[in-house]
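Notes to self, Endonuclease V:
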Amino acid sequence: MWAPEEEMVKEWESEQECMKQRLVLQDTEAWQKEPDFRGLERVGGVDLSFIKGDDHNACAQLVILNYPELQVVYDVSEMVFLTSPYVSGFLAFREVPPLLQLLHTLQREQPELMPQVMFVDGNGLFHYREFGLACHLGVLSDLPCVGVAKNLLQVQGVAKNDEHMSQISAMSKAGDTFPLVTDSGKILGQALRSSDRSTKPVYVSVGHRISLDTAVRLTHSCCRYRVPEPTRQADLRSREYLRRYFPSSS
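result:
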Protein backbone atom coordinates (compact mmCIF):
# COMPACT_ATOMS: atom_id res chain seq x y z
CA MET A 1 0.00 0.00 0.00
CA TRP A 2 1.47 3.40 -0.97
CA ALA A 3 1.54 6.10 1.66
CA PRO A 4 1.33 9.42 -0.17
CA GLU A 5 3.56 12.13 1.21
CA GLU A 6 1.97 15.40 2.29
CA GLU A 7 4.63 17.17 0.26
CA MET A 8 3.51 15.43 -2.94
CA VAL A 9 -0.16 16.26 -2.33
CA LYS A 10 0.73 19.93 -1.80
CA GLU A 11 2.71 19.89 -5.03
CA TRP A 12 -0.24 18.34 -6.88
CA GLU A 13 -2.62 20.95 -5.43
CA SER A 14 -0.31 23.68 -6.67
CA GLU A 15 -0.07 22.08 -10.14
CA GLN A 16 -3.87 21.77 -10.30
CA GLU A 17 -4.23 25.47 -9.45
CA CYS A 18 -1.80 26.42 -12.24
CA MET A 19 -3.56 24.24 -14.83
CA LYS A 20 -6.94 25.55 -13.67
CA GLN A 21 -5.94 29.02 -14.90
CA ARG A 22 -5.85 27.57 -18.45
CA LEU A 23 -9.36 26.07 -18.31
CA VAL A 24 -11.82 27.18 -20.99
CA LEU A 25 -15.43 26.51 -20.04
CA GLN A 26 -17.19 27.54 -23.23
CA ASP A 27 -17.56 26.32 -26.80
CA THR A 28 -14.52 27.03 -28.96
CA GLU A 29 -15.32 25.04 -32.11
CA ALA A 30 -17.75 25.79 -34.96
CA TRP A 31 -19.28 22.26 -34.80
CA GLN A 32 -20.25 22.80 -31.15
CA LYS A 33 -22.63 25.56 -32.18
CA GLU A 34 -24.45 23.44 -34.79
CA PRO A 35 -27.76 21.79 -33.73
CA ASP A 36 -26.64 18.50 -35.34
CA PHE A 37 -22.90 19.01 -34.62
CA ARG A 38 -22.21 19.40 -38.33
CA GLY A 39 -18.44 19.35 -38.85
CA LEU A 40 -17.81 16.86 -36.07
CA GLU A 41 -16.28 13.70 -37.57
CA ARG A 42 -14.15 12.05 -34.84
CA VAL A 43 -14.84 11.50 -31.14
CA GLY A 44 -12.34 9.89 -28.78
CA GLY A 45 -12.61 7.85 -25.60
CA VAL A 46 -10.01 6.71 -23.08
CA ASP A 47 -9.94 4.24 -20.21
CA LEU A 48 -7.58 2.28 -17.96
CA SER A 49 -8.26 -1.31 -16.89
CA PHE A 50 -6.23 -2.94 -14.15
CA ILE A 51 -4.88 -6.44 -13.72
CA LYS A 52 -6.82 -7.98 -10.84
CA GLY A 53 -5.00 -7.51 -7.53
CA ASP A 54 -2.32 -5.31 -9.14
CA ASP A 55 -2.33 -1.54 -8.53
CA HIS A 56 0.65 -0.88 -10.79
CA ASN A 57 0.02 -2.60 -14.12
CA ALA A 58 -2.85 -1.45 -16.30
CA CYS A 59 -4.04 -1.44 -19.88
CA ALA A 60 -4.31 2.12 -21.24
CA GLN A 61 -6.83 2.37 -24.06
CA LEU A 62 -7.60 4.98 -26.69
CA VAL A 63 -10.42 4.63 -29.23
CA ILE A 64 -11.52 6.98 -32.00
CA LEU A 65 -15.05 6.67 -33.39
CA ASN A 66 -16.50 8.34 -36.45
CA TYR A 67 -19.46 10.65 -35.90
CA PRO A 68 -22.41 10.37 -36.13
CA GLU A 69 -22.10 6.65 -37.01
CA LEU A 70 -20.12 5.87 -33.80
CA GLN A 71 -18.07 3.09 -35.44
CA VAL A 72 -14.52 2.51 -34.15
CA VAL A 73 -11.97 3.72 -36.71
CA TYR A 74 -8.87 3.47 -34.49
CA ASP A 75 -8.01 1.71 -31.28
CA VAL A 76 -4.85 1.01 -29.36
CA SER A 77 -4.22 -0.91 -26.14
CA GLU A 78 -0.95 -0.50 -24.29
CA MET A 79 0.25 -2.01 -21.01
CA VAL A 80 1.57 0.69 -18.68
CA PHE A 81 3.21 0.73 -15.26
CA LEU A 82 1.76 3.39 -12.94
CA THR A 83 4.20 4.88 -10.49
CA SER A 84 2.01 7.51 -8.83
CA PRO A 85 -0.19 6.41 -5.92
CA TYR A 86 -3.98 6.69 -5.89
CA VAL A 87 -5.00 9.71 -3.82
CA SER A 88 -8.68 10.70 -3.71
CA GLY A 89 -9.22 13.90 -5.70
CA PHE A 90 -5.91 13.51 -7.55
CA LEU A 91 -6.69 10.52 -9.79
CA ALA A 92 -5.58 12.46 -12.87
CA PHE A 93 -1.93 12.58 -11.75
CA ARG A 94 -1.94 8.78 -11.82
CA GLU A 95 -4.00 8.13 -14.96
CA VAL A 96 -3.54 11.04 -17.38
CA PRO A 97 0.18 10.57 -18.28
CA PRO A 98 -0.25 7.20 -20.08
CA LEU A 99 -3.47 8.38 -21.77
CA LEU A 100 -1.76 11.55 -22.96
CA GLN A 101 1.08 9.44 -24.33
CA LEU A 102 -1.40 7.48 -26.50
CA LEU A 103 -2.73 10.77 -27.90
CA HIS A 104 0.80 12.03 -28.60
CA THR A 105 1.61 8.80 -30.47
CA LEU A 106 -1.56 9.14 -32.57
CA GLN A 107 -0.74 12.80 -33.34
CA ARG A 108 2.73 11.77 -34.50
CA GLU A 109 1.76 8.66 -36.50
CA GLN A 110 -1.78 9.34 -37.80
CA PRO A 111 -2.61 13.02 -37.25
CA GLU A 112 -5.61 12.78 -39.60
CA LEU A 113 -7.34 10.57 -36.99
CA MET A 114 -6.89 12.96 -34.06
CA PRO A 115 -10.20 13.36 -32.18
CA GLN A 116 -12.06 16.66 -32.19
CA VAL A 117 -13.41 15.95 -28.71
CA MET A 118 -12.52 13.48 -25.95
CA PHE A 119 -14.80 11.60 -23.54
CA VAL A 120 -13.47 10.59 -20.15
CA ASP A 121 -14.99 8.08 -17.72
CA GLY A 122 -14.89 10.46 -14.75
CA ASN A 123 -15.54 14.05 -13.75
CA GLY A 124 -14.43 17.41 -15.08
CA LEU A 125 -15.52 20.56 -13.26
CA PHE A 126 -17.69 18.45 -10.93
CA HIS A 127 -14.81 17.78 -8.53
CA TYR A 128 -13.58 18.73 -5.04
CA ARG A 129 -11.43 21.55 -6.42
CA GLU A 130 -13.33 21.89 -9.71
CA PHE A 131 -10.54 20.24 -11.69
CA GLY A 132 -11.16 16.55 -12.30
CA LEU A 133 -9.72 14.02 -14.73
CA ALA A 134 -11.49 15.48 -17.80
CA CYS A 135 -10.16 18.99 -17.04
CA HIS A 136 -6.64 17.66 -16.51
CA LEU A 137 -6.61 15.69 -19.78
CA GLY A 138 -8.34 18.52 -21.65
CA VAL A 139 -5.87 21.22 -20.59
CA LEU A 140 -2.77 19.08 -21.22
CA SER A 141 -3.97 17.80 -24.61
CA ASP A 142 -5.65 21.13 -25.49
CA LEU A 143 -8.62 19.17 -26.83
CA PRO A 144 -12.30 19.74 -26.04
CA CYS A 145 -13.06 17.25 -23.29
CA VAL A 146 -16.19 15.97 -21.51
CA GLY A 147 -16.34 14.12 -18.20
CA VAL A 148 -19.10 11.52 -17.88
CA ALA A 149 -19.21 9.68 -14.55
CA LYS A 150 -21.36 6.66 -13.76
CA ASN A 151 -21.51 7.40 -10.03
CA LEU A 152 -22.33 10.61 -8.19
CA LEU A 153 -19.38 12.32 -6.54
CA GLN A 154 -20.76 13.77 -3.31
CA VAL A 155 -19.08 17.14 -3.25
CA GLN A 156 -19.81 20.76 -2.27
CA GLY A 157 -23.21 19.85 -0.85
CA VAL A 158 -24.35 17.68 -3.77
CA ALA A 159 -25.48 14.43 -2.16
CA LYS A 160 -27.27 11.20 -3.01
CA ASN A 161 -30.16 12.12 -0.73
CA ASP A 162 -33.96 11.83 -1.00
CA GLU A 163 -34.18 14.98 -3.12
CA HIS A 164 -31.58 13.62 -5.55
CA MET A 165 -33.36 10.26 -5.83
CA SER A 166 -36.66 12.06 -6.37
CA GLN A 167 -35.13 14.09 -9.22
CA ILE A 168 -33.88 10.85 -10.80
CA SER A 169 -37.37 9.31 -10.53
CA ALA A 170 -38.85 12.36 -12.29
CA MET A 171 -36.68 11.79 -15.40
CA SER A 172 -39.15 9.99 -17.66
CA LYS A 173 -37.24 9.69 -20.95
CA ALA A 174 -33.79 9.77 -22.55
CA GLY A 175 -32.47 13.32 -22.73
CA ASP A 176 -34.04 14.45 -19.43
CA THR A 177 -31.63 16.27 -17.13
CA PHE A 178 -31.33 18.15 -13.87
CA PRO A 179 -28.47 20.38 -12.64
CA LEU A 180 -25.92 19.45 -9.98
CA VAL A 181 -26.07 22.54 -7.77
CA THR A 182 -23.57 23.20 -4.98
CA ASP A 183 -24.33 24.78 -1.59
CA SER A 184 -23.21 28.11 -3.02
CA GLY A 185 -25.66 27.82 -5.94
CA LYS A 186 -23.04 27.02 -8.57
CA ILE A 187 -23.93 24.47 -11.27
CA LEU A 188 -20.99 22.10 -11.73
CA GLY A 189 -22.66 19.54 -13.99
CA GLN A 190 -25.86 17.85 -15.08
CA ALA A 191 -27.43 14.48 -14.36
CA LEU A 192 -28.55 13.00 -17.70
CA ARG A 193 -30.84 10.11 -18.45
CA SER A 194 -28.84 8.98 -21.45
CA SER A 195 -30.96 6.06 -22.60
CA ASP A 196 -34.59 4.93 -22.42
CA ARG A 197 -33.23 1.53 -21.43
CA SER A 198 -31.56 2.80 -18.27
CA THR A 199 -33.21 4.66 -15.41
CA LYS A 200 -29.80 5.36 -13.82
CA PRO A 201 -28.42 8.72 -14.94
CA VAL A 202 -24.85 9.58 -15.85
CA TYR A 203 -23.21 12.74 -14.51
CA VAL A 204 -21.87 15.10 -17.17
CA SER A 205 -19.43 17.93 -16.51
CA VAL A 206 -17.21 20.17 -18.60
CA GLY A 207 -13.59 19.14 -19.05
CA HIS A 208 -12.20 21.83 -21.35
CA ARG A 209 -13.18 23.95 -24.39
CA ILE A 210 -16.88 23.08 -24.33
CA SER A 211 -19.96 24.50 -22.57
CA LEU A 212 -22.08 22.41 -20.21
CA ASP A 213 -25.15 22.57 -22.48
CA THR A 214 -23.12 21.38 -25.46
CA ALA A 215 -21.41 18.68 -23.38
CA VAL A 216 -24.79 17.29 -22.27
CA ARG A 217 -26.25 17.42 -25.78
CA LEU A 218 -23.16 15.73 -27.26
CA THR A 219 -23.11 13.05 -24.56
CA HIS A 220 -26.74 12.19 -25.25
CA SER A 221 -26.07 11.99 -29.00
CA CYS A 222 -23.17 9.56 -28.36
CA CYS A 223 -25.16 7.16 -26.16
CA ARG A 224 -26.51 3.92 -27.58
CA TYR A 225 -26.68 2.58 -24.05
CA ARG A 226 -26.25 4.27 -20.67
CA VAL A 227 -22.56 5.16 -21.15
CA PRO A 228 -21.31 7.19 -24.16
CA GLU A 229 -20.02 4.91 -26.90
CA PRO A 230 -16.42 6.28 -26.88
CA THR A 231 -15.81 5.39 -23.21
CA ARG A 232 -17.91 2.23 -23.46
CA GLN A 233 -15.75 0.96 -26.31
CA ALA A 234 -12.54 1.97 -24.50
CA ASP A 235 -13.65 0.04 -21.41
CA LEU A 236 -14.72 -3.07 -23.39
CA ARG A 237 -11.52 -3.18 -25.42
CA SER A 238 -9.13 -2.64 -22.49
CA ARG A 239 -10.87 -5.41 -20.51
CA GLU A 240 -10.77 -7.70 -23.54
CA TYR A 241 -7.03 -7.03 -23.94
CA LEU A 242 -6.41 -8.07 -20.33
CA ARG A 243 -8.60 -11.18 -20.72
CA ARG A 244 -6.64 -12.21 -23.80
CA TYR A 245 -3.10 -11.56 -22.59
CA PHE A 246 -3.51 -11.84 -18.81
CA PRO A 247 -6.26 -14.47 -18.42
CA SER A 248 -5.65 -14.90 -14.70
CA SER A 249 -6.51 -11.22 -14.17
CA SER A 250 -10.19 -11.53 -15.07
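- Helices lie at 6-20, 91-109, 133-141, 162-169, 212-221, 229-245.
- Residues 30-249 form a domain with the archaeoglobus fulgidus dsm 4304 fold fold (CATH 3.30.2170.10).
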